[in-house]
Amino acid sequence: MSLRVGVIGAGMIGQEHIRRLTTVVTGAEVVAIADLATDRAERLAAATGARAHASGTEVIAHPDVHAVLVTSSGPTHADHVLAAVAAGKPVFCEKPLATAATDCLRIIQAEIAHGRRLVQVGFMRRYDDGYRRLKRLVDAGDIGVPLMVHCAHRNPTVPVSYTSEMAMLDTAIHEVDVLRWLLAEEIVSAQVLTPRPTRRRFEHLQDPQIMLFETAGGVRADVEVFVNCQYGYDIRCEVVGETGAARLPDPARPAVRGDARDSTAVVTDWRERFGDAFDAEIQAWVDAASEGTATGPDAWDGYAATAVGDATVEALKTREIVPVDMEPRPAFYTGAQQ
Ligand SMILES: NC(=O)C1=CN([C@@H]2O[C@H](COP(=O)(O)OP(=O)(O)OC[C@H]3O[C@@H](n4cnc5c(N)ncnc54)[C@H](O)[C@@H]3O)[C@@H](O)[C@H]2O)C=CC1
Ligand SMILES: O=C1[C@@H](O)[C@H](O)[C@@H](O)[C@H](O)[C@H]1O
Asked: Which stretch is the leader sequence (predicted)?
């Protein structure tokens, strides 16, 4: 029997995941959709054969829903995830797991009380082929012990609603997860440097930013976030070790020769860049949820990313090096990770 999924939040990525669940991954069907914009939920429900619901609470409680996918706005995630865990239903939550670290801890406590993993957090880069190759190489010791990591996260542009804090909370949260996963170490402090802002920005926005992180083992990482770079969606990561350096490959695109030039296209959109990773991530979720459990990035990863995010936002305000305030990791979350 296929996994009957209820989706909460049918905005940009919610619609992407509904399409993915309906036409790409196997073993699942979308049976319920809720969105604050009820007309949107109704339109999508009609198009997919699902039911439209007035609220996420209704979706989670419905006996026909086996598992829940949360793609509503960040501040609403914690309540939906807590309700899903209370109902004993596997739940996929887009990043962030919650906007407050205390809410992430409540989710962790609820999941531990349940006794089995139910929560997967949407850090899809762990399913990207390039990042997975990079991790295998680092884990195999091919570049020796890692010492430094250089990352960049560039978006062509962002809407006026984007704030300077979102450079961390919305954007660099992916690099924070990647760093913790690649290095298998927690981040212990954050600092933010603010270069001359681009003139192609909104007045309120500090863009670009350079975030500096230190891990428990002394690895230093710099993350450039530049969300109005104009030219494309450019994700970079290079790990430098004691005996070598390894770089995330760019997406494969043909080299084109013409007009006395040799050029390669740069992708312009995160959906294009990480499409395959999203497909693999949601397939892995469906497979695990069908067994009544979860896989991949867990609630602890969601908590750690939010805790580092809080320190980084504080560092942006104060320009100081800010220690990350993190609880000890419960034994429940020390198993092998994707
Ligand atoms: N993994 C990734 O690369 C990406 C992750 N995201 C994450 O996905 C989440 C959603 O982002 P977008 O789709 O871009 O936002 P969006 O604003 O396009 O969609 C959010 C939807 O949730 C609905 N909503 C809000 N509160 C709700 C509630 N209480 N109950 C039901 N529906 C509710 C809104 O009406 C809206 O339709 C965010 O947390 C964002 O950070 C977004 C884009 C990429
Ligand atoms: O999660 C995402 C967006 O919310 C965010 O705004 C973008 O900067 C990221 O590249 C994308 O992956």
From this structure: none
Ligand closest to 171 (CA) is 2
- For the question of an ipTM over 0.95, the answer is yes
Same domain, 134 and 121: no
Hey, what's the torsion of the CAs at 24, 10, 234, 305, to 10 degrees?
A: -100
Mind listing the pLDDT tens digit for each residue in 50-99?
999 999 999 999 999 999 999 999 999 999 999 999 999 999 999 999 99
- Ligand 2, pocket residues at CB < 6 Å: 155, 170-171, 174, 270
Residues 98 and 184 placed together within one structural domain of the fold: no
User: Which mutation among 8, 42, 73 tests ligand 1's pocket best, with the greatest number of atoms within 8 A of CB?
Assistant: 73
In a shared domain, residues 36 and 106: yes
Q: Residue 191 is part of which domain span?
A: 129-268
Domain count across the chain = 2
Query: pTM higher than 0.90, yes or no?
Result: yes
Domain identity same for 134 and 202: yes
Residues 53/41, Cβ–Cβ less than 8 Å: yes
331 within some domain:
no
In a domain, 191, yes or no: yes
If you take atom 8 of ligand 2, which residue's CA is the nearest one?
Answer: 171
In the beta sheet, which residues pair with residue 216? none
What ligand has the least distance to the C-alpha of 275? 1
Cα of 141 vs centre of ligand 1, distance in Å, is 39
Q: How far is the CA of 13 from the centre of ligand 1 (A)?
A: 6
Question: What phi and psi, each to the nearest 5 degrees, are found at residue 213?
Answer: -120, 150
Average pLDDT over residues 179-195: 98
Most informative mutation of 13, 71, 166, 174 for ligand 2 (most atoms within 8 A of CB): 174
